[in-house]
Amino acid sequence: MPPQRSKTVEALLAGAERAFVERGFHGASIGYICQCAGRTTGAFYSNYDSKLQLFLAVFRRQSDRTVERVEQGLAAVDTGRDPAPQLARLFTEIADRALDDRWLFLNIEFRLMAIRDKEAAAALTEHEEQFNRRVGTPLEALLRRSGRPPALSGEELAAFLGATIRGIRLDRGFRANTGGRDPLPFATMERALEGLFTARE
């Protein structure tokens, strides 16, 4: 990709992320996305065929960041010790610190779209299957190297972790707006995940 085009794509991705978080997929017009990106609509159509294609690119970039954090965390796990508490801490810290409100808004927005739109549903399904493999395969391999085979397959673990983290972040999000008590603090989540990662006889 030529350097100038790369800068344009980066600007569009950053502008689109801001626009989608602020206004949602349907509320963020192409014009507003370009305004946030500091680019023209011509630049948009030179790089993307549709707003959905751009949304997918934004979503994939967010997911790539998450996978990188998981990979870095897995590489730091000491397999000479029980990996369960280490993995529980890793995924709890990712949920607590690494995944911000932008991540939550984009995830919820995509899922709402997928419920209503078959094209979005197909795209999200494909993405989730790839994501679960990318996270689940090295996670399962690490547990097996530790001599503690997991109760679930790696892909099942990744799918379960994703659903759990999304749900907790969503509930924390709306309760934070009312000052309500957190029904599932991250310390509780960490204890629950340790049980999940503990090998079964």
TrEMBL record:
Keywords: DNA-binding, Transcription, Transcription regulation. This is TetR/AcrR family transcriptional regulator. GO terms for molecular function: DNA binding. The keyword Transcription applies. Residues 6-66 form the HTH tetR-type domain. SUPFAM superfamilies: Homeodomain-like, Tetracyclin repressor-like, C-terminal domain. The keyword Transport does not apply. Pfam families: TetR_N. Residues 29-48 bind DNA.
